[in-house]
Each structure stands twice: as C-alpha cells, then as structure tokens.
C-alpha cells in the first residue's frame, strides 16, 4: 500500500467508500442495483453521517468521563498515577484485540476465535522463552504476530472456501485453536520464573509514566485507525459491510478484503497474546478463555455497528477502555461481588443507551439542518 | 450379573523390572493368560464377586456399605500386583492435577500396577460420569477421582463400585456414601490457621488485612474464609482487622483488578491473603510491578513454580500449599491398600503409603495428607511443581 492510495480527507464511514471505489470497472448497466443503493442516502447524508460518526465516539467518551468522575468523587485514589497506570495497562491488551476486531466487524463479519488465538500465542511466547531464555523481545513479538496471522489465515481461507458465515467458522476455530493449545500444553504451566527478567519488565515498564504496553496498543490503534479512515483498502472494508453485493458490483474484491481483515485480526490477537504473557507472567492453556465476548462487547459499545459498515477503531478502543474502567471502578467502589456482573452489564447497557440517545439527537439535528437545503 | 468376562490382564511385572507396565504382548502371553486370569479373579474376589451375590434392588447406599463390610481388613496382606489404577481428575490439562496424577503414577509404578489418566478437558460433572461408566466397563480395580460435583457423580461411582472398582476421592470429595475413601490434602482448620499465622508474622501482629478469593460461590474457599475469620477472633490476633473479602474469580485480569481495588480502597492495608493459586500469583505479579511492592505483605496458597520469581524478588516472603504429587501418591496407595484387602475403609485402620509412611483412616473414611508445607526463599528451590 502506497501513500498514493490514501484518500486525502477522512470520509464518513457509510456512504463514501462505495462512491470512491468507482474508478474500477463500472457496474454492468442492465438491471444492476446502483452502487451503495442501500447505504444512507449518498446525495445528502454525507455531513449527517460524519456528525453521527463523531457522536458515536463522543457518547462513549462522555460515559467514560462520567464514570471516572463519579468513581473519583467516591474515592480520590481512583485517579492516582498508579491507578491510571493500572487501567491503561489493563486496557492495552483489550485495545489491541478491539482494533483487530473492528476491521472484521465493519465488513459485516465477526471473529470469535481471538481469545483462543491470544491464548495460543501467549503459550507460544512462554514456550519460546523456556526453550531460548535469551530470545530478544522483538522475536517474541514477531512470533506472536506470525502465529496469530497464521490462525487468521486459516479463518480467512475457511470462510472464503466454505462460504459459511464467519460466525460459524470462527466458533469452530475457537475450539480448534483452544484444543491445539490444550494438547500442546498438556497441563503445563509456564511461570514468571521461567521467563527472562527483560520480558517481565517489558510488561510493567513505563515511559514518562505511561506503560509501554499501552504505548504499543496506542500505536496499533493509530495504525488501524488511519488504515480504516484514509486508505482505499480500509474504505473498501466499510463498503463491503454496508452492502456486500453493491461493493462487489462496484468492483471491490470482497473475498480478498475480508480475508485480509481476518489475517490482520489474527495477527493482532497474536500480538495481544505476547503482551498478555508479559503482563501476567503466568501462562497455561486457559489464557484468554472467554475474551472474545468481551472484545465484541467493547467493539459494539464503542459504536461499531455489529452488522457492519460503520464505526471506527478509535471508538472500539474507547469501548475497551470503558469496559476496563468499569471493572476497576466496581472494585474500587467495593460493589458486592455477587452483584458485580449484573452492575457491569447494567453499566454497559447504560453506556449504549447514552450513545444511542446522543446519536439519535445528532441525526435529528443534522436532518433539521439539511431540510431547508433539500426544499 | 452372575458372570462377567474377566479383564484381559497385563503381564505381571517382575518386582524389580525397571520398565513400565506397558510391555508389548509377548508370544508367551496366551500361555500365561490362564494363570493371569486366575490371579485377576482372586484379585477381584473381595470386591466384585461379593457384589454379584447381592440381591437386586438394594439401594446404592447399601451397596456401598456392603462392599466394605463384607470383607475384613488384613493389615499384613501384601499389595496386589497388576492392579489397574485409573486417575480421573476434575479436568485434564490442569497443572495442579497433572502434578497430582504424576504423583499417583509414581506410586502405581512402585507397586507394579497399571496406571492411566483419563478425564474431561472442562471441569464438569456430566463429562466425568461418562468416563466413570467407561472405567467401570473396563473393570478398573481402583478409581482415584476428584469430583466436580459431590452428588452428580454419585450414581456412576456406585455402579463402578458394584462392578468391582474401589473408589478413592482426592482434592474434592464426593458424597461419603458413594466412595470408599477420601484423601484430604489438609484439614480446612490447618489451612486456615496456617495462613493466618503467616500473615500475622508478615505484618508484625497488627494491621488491616484483606482476602483475595476465587469465586464468591467456591465451597472450599468459603469454608476456609469462615475458619480464618474464627481464627482471627483469638486474642493473639486482636490487632488484626479483616477489612474485606474480594473475589478474583480465578482469572488473571479480574484478580489484578481486585488487588488494585483493594489497595486503592484501603490505603492502610498491611497484608493480603489469597487462598487460591491463580489469585496469589496474580496479586504477586501486580505488587511486583507497582508502587505497593514490598509495602504490602502477601501470602496464601500457591505452587512453588508459580511463586518462585516473586519469592526471590522479595514480593512474597512465604506461602503455603500441600504437595499435590504427595496427594496423588497417597491416594494411589490408599486405593491399592483397599483393593488388596489391607484396609476396608473403616475408621482407625492403618496402612503404609510407600515413602510417605503410615496413615490412619479417620471418621467418614477420610485420610489427611498432613499440615500444609510452608515455602520460603530457603526451601522453595527444593520443590518443582
């Protein structure tokens, strides 16, 4: 991908991609539905959609700020340097996963295997250090990325070959990868003492008070965000999610793009596995079990439409940060443990409602503004 | 069920053979079959043959009681050779059970039996039942299991027992009427007392402490916590205040968050007890990477391998656990002693568990491994599990 492919301006998620893809062969005229036909009105909705996109993230951000403010009022130590560092560290792994998941979800697919891929990569990292205690850190990161990409490759290939919904395929590979992990580990646990100090320090190190893991997550987020927002391939992912048929008719190579999204999602899950190993220092075959649902929750809370076509990686990252902060806040507020899960779920619903209200208001205002023009 | 097909036995091992019991079938096998079959029948005589003479329609409870009361214990009986011993843990691929089962494997090798480990990859009672049924059909002599649910596996355990198997539970007991013996890792009182002693020593006898447990519904955790609270009421612990119990659900991330929450919510917290291996390792990892490391004492139940790093870097001074390998070892010997007629499972009977020495059966067929081992920087490197 060269810079020449990049669109100069960040476009609205929904409508624009299909339009911009038209340099490729025009759709056959006879009887073909117009490209982007079902995407929100290509003629007038551009600005409205942009506002909507903005409102989605501001909604989550507002929920996050409210939560932090409320918790800090109850316990001022919630905003101490250590506590903020802890929250950033906690969110780092989830943000990396959420960025990858966003790529898949905007194409109207889902990757449920990420928890297992993370577990497999975390265990591989541990194994690498047991076998080669002096292995350099970049090698570990590369191994994680490569292993994750291989898993993503398998997901993508199966989806392309079998033409079965990704939900089903990745539900299958969720168990396949976990099973591989179990048979590889066969009950073994790799502990902090088995890993080199350099690697464990990497899990807790900070630069100017910001954890290194969080910086890596931020870099990944930025890369995915720019890719989705400004690169042609990224925009095409939105077009695919908005209306796969239209995207195909307008010349987008849908299969290839979806395949790519799964490979990247797998690779990022692999990277997240290495970060997870560095952070917790203990890995066995159960690492990351159930994480896929948390990631999907984070992505949806962050305003990425589960049926594809809209949302940003930044929003998903905010969602991940919000969920992590909810978890921390509940413990700081000493919520009764029997109620924690219910409160957790309630707060997620509240965040989604707030986001929805803001989004609706945004659209209404945008419509009101457009009305005089249209008349 | 008057006659059953006799399990095709393994070739009896010579006592000092260094090789494992899984030897390839030799040409002479057929010739030895008759002898071996006789041996196997004698071996099953106490359990299986007595079972087959009972009237149908007896309740499970009677079946259990009958199996142990028809035979009388012969403390001097030699351990039978060629016993088929199966370990059925809560879950295979769980490091704790892997170590425990390996301890059992070592014991089975010592007394020349045939060892195998089977089990589900997820810790559920229903999947244990199907394994139990298979083991019963294979006429396993001794089943050593850790129950995922005390009652749900009862029916399967009892049908295995009426098929001739002796059932020893370890780690997690099944209902007493559906097993012969329970090998308890340590009494709950010992576990609670040890941890309170450790934390009191760490924090110098006074201050605020908190407990980081597994899930709010974990039976054994809650029993220990209750006993710890009782222990703290003793006058010598008057200066120690248990401020709260947090639950890390045995997940790394959640345990991290709970530890963070404890430290933010209780600025004067002096120590944390985590009676669960996942919680203890996660709390130690958190403390070692935060500003609280060394300022807040941490102890609990953990494995030496998991805690080695944190003991050496000073985050944790001491913690406790039983040796799971010893637990499996003792359970295997208890099963062999049962199957050989040395014991019947009645209170007060004694038997020798290899290098661990002599054990006495307590009330309800319970055997206690012993008080927990304390691990410190001085001895932790002597252990590998």
From TrEMBL, chain A:
Pfam families: BPD_transp_2. GO terms for molecular function: transmembrane transporter activity. It comes from the Bacteria. Its main location: membrane. Residues 1-23 have a biased composition (Low complexity). Residues 1-50 are annotated as: Disordered. Keywords: Cell inner membrane, Cell membrane, Membrane, Transmembrane, Transmembrane helix, Transport. CDD domains: TM_PBP1_transp_AraH_like. It is a multi-pass membrane protein. The keyword Transport applies. The chain crosses the membrane at residues 58-75, 87-106, 112-130, 137-162, 205-228, 258-278, 290-307, 314-333, 339-359. Residues 38-47 have a biased composition (Gly residues). GO terms for cellular component: plasma membrane. InterPro entries: ABC_transp_permease. It is found in: Cell membrane. The complex is composed of two ATP-binding proteins (LsrA), two transmembrane proteins (LsrC and LsrD) and a solute-binding protein (LsrB). Part of the ABC transporter complex LsrABCD involved in autoinducer 2 (AI-2) import. Probably responsible for the translocation of the substrate across the membrane. This is Autoinducer 2 import system permease protein LsrC.
TrEMBL record, chain B:
It is found in: Cell envelope. InterPro entries: Bact_Solute-Bind_Prot2, Peripla_BP_I, RhaS, SBP_2_dom. Residues 53-63 have a biased composition (Basic and acidic residues). Residues 1-47 form the signal peptide. GO terms for cellular component: outer membrane-bounded periplasmic space. Coiled coil: none annotated. GO terms for molecular function: carbohydrate binding. This is Rhamnose ABC transporter substrate-binding protein.
